[in-house]
Amino acid sequence: MIHLPHLAFGTPRQLPGPETLPGRVVVLDIAFAADGMGTPFEEVTGPFIRGLGGRLAAWVDHHDHDRHRQFADDPRFVLATKAQHGACPEMVTPDLVERTGPIDAIFAHVDLDGLYATAKWIRGGTEPYRGADDDARAVDTRTGAPGPTGDLIDRALRARFRDDALKHAVVRYLAGGCRDEVVHEAIDRAARQFDQMSAETRRLAGRYELRGRVAFVDAGERKQAYDKTELLLAGQRLAPVSVVRDSGMITIASQFDSGLDFVALLGLGGGMPTRVSIPESRLGEALDKLNARLGVAL
User: Fold this and answer.
1) Of 139, 136, 127, 121, which is closest to residue 178 (Cα–Cα)?
2) What beta strand segments (E) does 19-93 contain?
3) d(CA 239, CA 212)
4) pLDDT tens track for 187-224
5) What is the rounded CA–CA span in Å between residue 72 and residue 142?
6) How far is 28 from 111, CA to CA, in rounded Å?
7) Which of 139, 140, 137, 97 is nearest to 119 (CA)?
8) What is the residue extent of each domain of the chain?
9) Which residue of 10, 50, 96, 253 is 20 to 30 Å from 245, comparing CA positions?
């Protein structure tokens, strides 16, 4: 049985206490906190880095951020932009794993990209199956279609995105070369739950309205769980930019290759250029700036 280090999952704004991560730590697919989103780097990411201190073995990430240049001379930080690397696993190479040396814990992003990068690190920098890097890139950029394994895991994670036990199971399955039939069945059961969410996603997609060249939908009155990524993609079939309002936030998205940069446009300081979430209090401002960028006067 393959040995797994201590695993923890989170987001750029939800970091664990450094003391909860034992020994030497690798951080994968975790963006630096964006100042313009109410979670300043100096209040979130900075204290985490300082708290790990010399125990931080490597930090590998592919999300744009103004602070990347601050760590350009620290070899532990392997940082790129989304344009340079569409997904994080392709940045995890055998040379990087060997150069980093033995580690005790991995802290990774909660999504497929983070879990695939985790499994690849555990495997010494080799893909868990042929085409795994391509699947991660297809899922994280939403360009092209992942293969059967990537599609199955993507649907499972999106159906149960708060289920840490499932995330551990996915990493174990991938790290073991996708041979554990028991874990495969558990992933398959979770994926079938995603299929049940599709009806609500389609219902909400029918409520989109155009505001200039932006497709907008209020998902606050949802009847059950839905998939936000699919809902955003549905809006992009109607307009260059889609916006979903839910739970006090708005999420803005465009195609990966659209050339739009919402991080710069909205002064966020960091994140994924073509998908951001901001407080709904900025909706009017965002719509004005988006339509101005798209050449529409409202």
Assistant:
1) 127
2) 25-28, 56-61, 64-65, 77-79
3) 9
4) 999 999 887 788 899 999 999 999 999 999 999 888 88
5) 29
6) 11
7) 97
8) 6-142, 206-293
9) 10
Question: 107: which 2 tokens?
Answer: 């802290």
d(CA 112, CA 97): 20
* Residue 27 Ramachandran class (φ > 0 left, ψ -120 to 50 alpha, else beta): beta
Q: 33: which 2 tokens?
A: 């906190």
Q: Which residue has the tokens 């739970």?
A: 247
Tokens of 77: 């930080």
241, two tokens: 């930019």
Hey, which CATH number is domain 206-293, 3.40.1410.10, 3.90.79.10, 3.30.428.10, 3.10.310.30? Answer: 3.10.310.30
pLDDT (tens digit per residue) in 65-107:
889 999 999 999 999 999 999 999 999 999 999 999 999 999 9
Q: Which helix (H) or strand (E) holds 250?
A: strand 249-254
* Helix spans in 131-275 (H): 132-141, 148-159, 164-175, 181-205, 228-236, 262-265
Q: How far is CA 269 from CA 16, 31, 44, 79, 256, in A?
A: 22, 11, 14, 15, 19
Distance from C-alpha of 92 to C-alpha of 57, rounded to nearest angstrom: 13
> How many residues belong to the chain?
298
